[in-house]
Amino acid sequence: MKAVVFERHGGPEVLQYQDLPEPRPGPNEVVIQVKASACNFNDIWARRGLPGMKIILPHISGSDAAGAVVEVGSEVKKVRVGDEVVVHCGLSCRQCYYCAHGDEYFCPDFKIWGFQTGPLDGSHAQYCKVPALNTLAKPKQLSFEEAASMPLVLVTAWRMLVTRAQIKAGDFVVVWGAAGGLGVMAVQVARLFNARAIAVASSEEKLELARRLGAEFTVNRKKQDILQEVRRITEGKRADIVFEHIGAETWPVSLQCLKWGGTLVTCGATSGFEATTDIRLLWNKQQNYLGSHLGNKGELIDAMRFVERGLIKPVVDRVMPLKDLARAQQLMESNEVQGKIAIVPA
Ligand code: NAP
Questions:
Q1: CA distance linking residue 119 with residue 130, whole number of Å
Q2: pLDDT at 51
Q3: Ligand 1, atom nearest to 203 Cα
């Protein structure tokens, strides 16, 4: 099969389009013919290499896949050859105390498939294998490209806003990177809950997309002062929730944008991990700073119910062939993507 592999860390030039043997399933696994995968920022973190995290080499990235099951392991009962599926990329033991409580990400064996797994175990290939438990039926009305563009960013945004920040009707929610992979989902989740998204992005085109997805307010971060705009929009009150994933460059402004008693929720730090916090905000204003990581399979099932009803839609910026994965990653790194890039192996 064709796959995109890297054997050392570096820039997009380390990605090689190669021939590899097709994967075979373990007893509880299924093999999927990948009809589409999606680019996520963790593909880029893995390729660059992350201090304190082991990336297993040689590596196939890719934590989202949509495709058809072509082989099932000897113990697999509920997934059949021919099933059209998407993947929930959180792998865990499903037996420990944390898994039993639905806290899969605290499981000692927790790994994000296509990021922390390997060698050669991700979706940017013609075939991939995952535990049968990690498959979900592909929503019928979605194309494979749309379906692949959905699970990771949807479950992450859902957990951040619904489970962690407990979004509710009327909340002002500042969404950074509102036209990015996570952002397009966050804006739609906010609309679903009748909350008032304040979408932040770097161009008018991206802000127009955010408005189409349901953002009530938009702020162009290249042209406008974000704190001033948030104060104006909220009539001085500031935001109930800030949806963070940018990190060092935006963290201090995010804290300033938050109201007394407000909640900042973060899952990432694209611009850097070391940020400054004026901790007076924490006690004086009694703000809440919450971390969030992926989401469990139940949260993905909950969120996908709204996809099935057409109330949350995947946003595909473009479809690119697998051999052009390096170019797709460059587009993501230079913030030129609206929603997701779907990758097709053919
Ligand atoms: P993405 O599709 O590349 O979107 C990121 C957006 O951030 C871009 O559209 C860009 O929008 C904005 N941005 C980039 N640099 C910025 C800066 N310096 N200041 C303000 N805005 C900036 O990426 P994504 O998929 O949304 O992921 C975002 C981050 O979350 C990544 O670091 C990723 O690793 C992390 N993440 C974590 C989890 C988890 O489970 N922990 C899950 C998913 C993602 P504009 O340039 O238009 O403003």
A1: 13
A2: 87
A3: 47
